[in-house]
Amino acid sequence: MASMNKPVFQAIRSHSPAKPVLIFVSSRRQTRLTALDLIAFLATEDDPKQWLHQDEREMTDIIATVRESNLKLTLAFGIGMHHAGFHERDRRTVEELFINCKIQVLIATSTLAWGVNFPAHLVVVKGTEYYDGKTHRYVDYPITDVLQMMGRAGRPQFDDQGKAVILVHDIKKDFYKKFLYEPFPVESSLLAVLSDHLNAEIAAGTITSKQDAMDYITWTYFFRRLVMNPSYYNLEDVSHDTVNKFLSGLVERSLRDLECSYCMEIGEDGRTIEPLTHGRIASYYYLKHQTADSSLEDLLLILTDAEEYAELPVRHNEDQLNSELARRLPLEVNPHSYDSAHTKTHLLLQAHFSHASLPCTDYSTDTKTVLDNAIRICQALLDVAANEGWLLPALSVCNLVQMIIQGRWLNDSSLLTLPHFEQQSLYLFRKWNPGRSRGGARDYQGPIEGLPELMAACDGRESNFTAMVGEELDRSQVSQAWAFLSHLPVVQVQMRVKGWWEGGQEQGERTLPSSVSNIRDEKSWLSVHADQEYVLQVHLRRLNAGGQRRKQDSKAVAPRFPKMKDEGWFLVLGEVEKRELLAVKRVGYLRNHNTVSIAFYTPEKMGRCIYTLYLMSDSYLGLDQQYDIHLNVTPASVAVQVNSEVSESVGKLTLK
User: Fold this and answer.
1) Looking at residue 282, what is its pLDDT?
2) Which H or E run includes 631?
3) Do residues 457 and 444 touch, judged by C-beta distance below 8 A?
4) 595 by DSSP, 3-state: which?
5) What is the pLDDT of residue 220?
6) Cα–Cα distance between 485 and 438 in angstroms, integer?
7) In DSSP terms, which residues pair with 107 in a beta bridge?
8) Beta 122-126 vs 21-25: how paired, if at all?
């Protein structure tokens, strides 16, 4: 790849010395390496900044807003870089500069060819191969990708012609010449992902039988190409019987794969198809069907083993870097799988939680890719746990989401999520003396072990916080840490149970204690009827909502997460003794107050039981709340059962 940089520079000088140039490379690392080599070639020219078409002082102001350090360097020479690993604001800055011809050269990965349309006078395709970490070898770009890249050459209304330069291995030169100058058939890629397509249609109700699946395939482009070019798809001939047998086998294999992943089931007649919850979850979150088959024995391992991470690049010699990184991380991985994309994903997440230094810039970019998919997969895992009624795995998924957003281990002190705080800074809170604190919180006198205690000790006053940490942090760092702390939500919880009780003519509500209650106190036990549906009404009020006035305040403060994210909450109701999950509700950003209703059934067995409600943040560590609900289950009343059924029937009536 490095040997191609000189020809790229010469192509720009020959074909587009002053007009926009778009260079496509095979990986994110190559965007950086190519840009740095081009800068080295520019340094030998009379005007090293000949590709910068903007006042240098204005460009300096723009560069000051850019996060990526390498991008700061290249923009000063009129060279932009663009790939999915950059922060959205950095990508937008580069796009605007290139579109407005402020920078002349843009180096991007091949995915840009299918994304935003940025035409240029000259397009350079730097190599037609990329390293596939899954197969550990270099593979050719799909022909359609090369066509798409070339199609960016020529700017409408500006150029009467476009130029494309393709740098290719000499033994493939004749192939690409033929491909460029003669018509080339476009083949279907449906076979590789047919199971996922069928799963989506089954979940949507479009496919309900094996015959529907056969009909679905006959309407695809794959079927058209199958009969036109059978040898490409390993079909012997195009006779009716042979094609029918080929498609039948294809449908059977795909449905068997889905059935083994518990995404659907085939009826007793052997023809009808019924979608299962795992299949709907995989379809809803755009996951591959193999991901929904994962158990929850080791949550982090399950997350990183998801099929979505199979394409994470493991570049040449990165197995050695993975081995060195693994030695500095707390959890062991299989030492024989350092060249695996899943093992690399596992190590990157561990490094994210541990704040460990990464071997190179590419690993930082790969970490952003891993984090982009992680929340989506965790949401699916939570749905699987809810469907199976697994309480502990569901709580673990919620905790894992918090870890991913804040970039800390669950067993770390939640105080470490404050900006500029590391383990060696925690002594500041341990030595805090409320008695000597001027203007300190009068109500809180205990030690500071986590964020809730710190918020109580500060009592909403930045001066109290400054008195605690001022000797270790400078003024700007104190301000940033306080901005994080003051933004954290303080939520008050009130609970009521709504339902039918004996002797009542209509549904009633009974208030539950929101503080810790003694199980020996008879007043703390709520009498309910056995095997009866009740509704737990949870009223959530944000106590520090006064300062949350702007719309952007709904965003969580997560400096280590690459994307903007809204604050949210999980409400989990379960029975700890049986480890049974009863209900899960997702709650959005809490601006002032909100009431959430959770329906649940009481046990069939009479006696006392304890349900537990968990209020868990989906963004912050250390802010979770837990409330026990003491239920005294009494025999079911016939009158109550009748009233409940009548109420349910009336609720289903609709006017026509």
Assistant:
1) 73
2) strand 625-634
3) yes
4) strand
5) 92
6) 20
7) 23, 81
8) parallel
Identify whether the C-beta of residue 379 lies closer than 8 Å to the C-beta of residue 285: yes
Q: 542 φ, ψ to 5°?
A: -85, 115
Mean pLDDT of 574-595: 90
Per cent of the chain over pLDDT 70 is: 88
3-state SS assignment for residue 65: coil
Question: Model-level pTM?
Answer: 0.69
Beta bridge partners of 275: 264
Q: Which two tokens stand for residue 223?
A: 């079927």
Residue 647 has a pLDDT of: 53
- CA distances from residue 473 to 112, 277, 462, 469 in whole angstroms, order as listed: 42, 51, 14, 6
Taking the C-alpha atoms of residue 70 and residue 50, their distance in angstroms, rounded to an integer, is 19
- Alpha-carbon distance values, 48 to 3, 40, 42, 64, 78 (Å): 21, 9, 5, 21, 10
| Rounded CA separation 99/92 (Å) | 11
Statement: residue 286 has pLDDT above 70:
no
Asked whether the predicted pLDDT for residue 351 surpasses 90, the reply is yes
Between strands 526-529 and 625-634, the pairing is parallel
Q: What is the spatial distance between Cα 535 and Cα 515, in angstroms, rounded to a whole number?
A: 20
Q: Alpha-carbon torsion 432, 434, 436, 441, what sign?
A: positive
Can you name the residues that pair with 109 across neighbouring β-strands? Answer: 25
pLDDT tens for 165-220 read: 999 988 888 888 887 777 767 888 898 889 989 988 998 888 999 999 999 999 99
Measured distance CA(59)–CA(77) in Å, rounded: 10
Residue with tokens 């003024």: 475
> For residues 119 and 22, what is the distance between their CA atoms, to the nearest angstrom?
8
Is it the case that residue 289 has pLDDT exceeding 60? no
The whole-number pLDDT of residue 461 equals 86
Q: What are the tens digits of pLDDT across the range 232-253? A: 888 888 898 899 999 999 999 9
At position 550, the amino acid (one-letter code) is R
Distance separating alpha carbons of residues 367 and 347, to the nearest angstrom: 10
- The token duo for 349 is 């997440």
> Residue 65 has which token pair?
């807003």
Indicate left, alpha or beta for 183 from its phi (over 0: left) and psi (-120 to 50: alpha).
beta
Tell how many helices (H) and how many strands (E) occur in the chain. 22, 18
Res. 96 pLDDT band, cuts 50 70 90: very high
Q: What distances in angstroms separate CA 265 from CA 254, 260, 289, one per listed residue?
A: 12, 9, 14
Query: With helix as H, strand as E and coil as C, how does 205-262 read?
Result: CCCCEHHHHHHHHHCCHHHHHHHHCHHHHCCCCCCHHHHHHHHHHHHHHHHHHHHHCC
Q: What is the DSSP letter of 525?
A: P
Domains within the chain, CATH numbers bracketed: 2-181 (3.40.50.300), 190-284 (1.10.10.10), 294-388 (1.10.3380.10), 421-472 (no CATH), 491-652 (2.60.40.150)
**Residue 225 buriedness (CB in 10 A; 0-12 / 13-18 / 19+):** middle
pLDDT computed for residue 460 by the predictor: 83
Question: 103 is written with which tokens?
Answer: 């920078």
Give the start-end residues of each E strand in 127-230: 129-132, 137-140, 163-167
